[in-house]
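Tokens in:
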């Protein structure tokens, strides 16, 4: 193991030349902790994702402060929004529970030593999933009559803690308000169930429509039902979390924990005091000088109208960078803001180095996150240029990108 490397949950695996092996890269259950002195330069390509534990802790503290005493589920579905559950676990273990979808991810959290609450946000997908719920002590959402039927047939020594999901207007999962109380009564009659919490999910917490119509539906239908309540995602927590009827007993922040703004472009991370938890960085690997009329990349979609300097960068769509952005997606070179040019290819993209005379081969390129000089490029700005959102961009980080964890 290289000098200066920190042993994480799994010992980093590298071959004789110091290359990080595929086995050591970002799978569920793997955590690679390397110091900045680890010989990344020996790797075949300079691309690297860095997970910032300090930023995760900071963002969790922001969520807790907004939650005003409500308990906090750290939403870690989709392998912690692409960051890796094992990698973020230490930083987020200050949460009151973890919320996710996959049984494998729940099992991993137990293996990592988490003994507190784990919530399956979509509940079980088939009856046999109830056995691991009993064995691992998982709490689970209930959103269909079939799930109640399965529970009623389930043999267990330990009654389950369930979150009864109401469809208050998103029309994705949950019992409609008119059938909510019947579902509650069915669950309440089961010996397999001890606690029933009440839950709904907002469709427009980040936008102008807001949450009031869903709040009204939820409150009317759940009115005098006992049980804890859980309503707010990141956007509701940040925009309305100071209202007790919004934060209730449990809040469910996801994206804000990873330092991406849920309501960009209305508000960015600076407004919410969040810090990016992932940096995707690489280097300039070649420089081209263009004359007016020269074009860049596949399809020649960008043509220079004056002499320009163009940097070729070791990052492409096979690394998870969005192909749809094209020219003008923001990027940092040596911590200075510039733009992409032309089409993104599988392994490379082009950046405008005109006006950055110090930049050249080897220059640091920050695709999103924090540059070495501290300049930030929020992932949602990159995503927006490609017609998508920070959530998708973070989840899209490709398996082939090596990942390191830093304080
Ligand atoms: C049921 C539920 N709760 C909470 C969250 C977290 O949402 P966000 O990442 O917007 O905070 C999600 C994510 O989509 C979800 O599906």
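Residues out:
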């Amino acid at each position: 193991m290289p000098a200066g490397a920190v042993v994480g949950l799994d010992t980093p695996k590298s071959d004789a030349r110091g290359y990080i092996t595929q086995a050591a890269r970002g799978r569920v259950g793997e955590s690679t902790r390397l110091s900045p002195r680890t010989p990344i330069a020996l790797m075949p390509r300079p691309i690297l994702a860095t997970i910032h534990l300090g930023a995760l802790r900071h963002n969790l503290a922001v969520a807790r402060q907004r939650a005003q005493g409500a308990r906090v589920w750290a939403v870690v579905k989709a392998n912690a929004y692409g960051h890796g559950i094992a990698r973020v676990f230490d930083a987020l273990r200050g949460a009151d529970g973890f919320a996710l979808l996959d049984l494998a991810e729940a099992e991993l959290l137990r293996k990592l030593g988490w003994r507190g609450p784990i919530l399956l946000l979509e509940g079980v997908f088939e009856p046999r999933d109830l056995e691991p719920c009993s064995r691992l002590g998982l709490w689970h959402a209930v959103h269909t009559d079939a799930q109640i039927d399965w529970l009623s047939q389930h043999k267990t020594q330990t009654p389950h803690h369930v979150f009864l999901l109401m469809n208050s207007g998103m029309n994705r999962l949950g019992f409609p308000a008119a059938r909510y109380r019947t579902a509650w009564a069915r669950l309440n009659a089961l010996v397999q169930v001890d606690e029933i919490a009440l839950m709904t999910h907002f469709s427009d917490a980040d936008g102008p429509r807001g949450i009031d119509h869903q709040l009204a539906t939820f409150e009317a239908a759940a009115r005098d039902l006992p049980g804890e309540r859980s309503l707010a995602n990141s956007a509701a927590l940040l925009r309305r979390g100071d209202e007790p009827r919004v934060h209730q007993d449990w809040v469910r922040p996801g994206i804000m924990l990873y330092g991406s703004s849920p309501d960009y472009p209305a508000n960015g991370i600076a407004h919410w005091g969040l810090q990016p938890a992932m940096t995707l960085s690489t280097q300039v690997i070649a420089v081209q000088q263009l004359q007016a009329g020269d074009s860049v990349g596949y399809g020649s979609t960008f043509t220079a109208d004056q002499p320009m300097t163009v940097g070729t960068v070791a990052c492409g769509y096979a690394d998870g960078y969005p192909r749809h952005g094209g020219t003008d997606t923001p990027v940092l070179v040596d911590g200075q803001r510039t733009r992409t040019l032309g089409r993104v290819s599988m392994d490379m993209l082009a950046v405008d180095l005109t006006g950055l005379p110090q930049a050249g081969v080897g220059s640091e390129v920050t695709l999103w996150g924090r540059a070495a000089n501290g300049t930030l490029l929020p992932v949602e700005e990159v995503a927006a240029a490609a017609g998508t959102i920070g959530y998708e961009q973070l989840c899209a980080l490709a398996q082939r990108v090596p990942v390191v964890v830093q304080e």
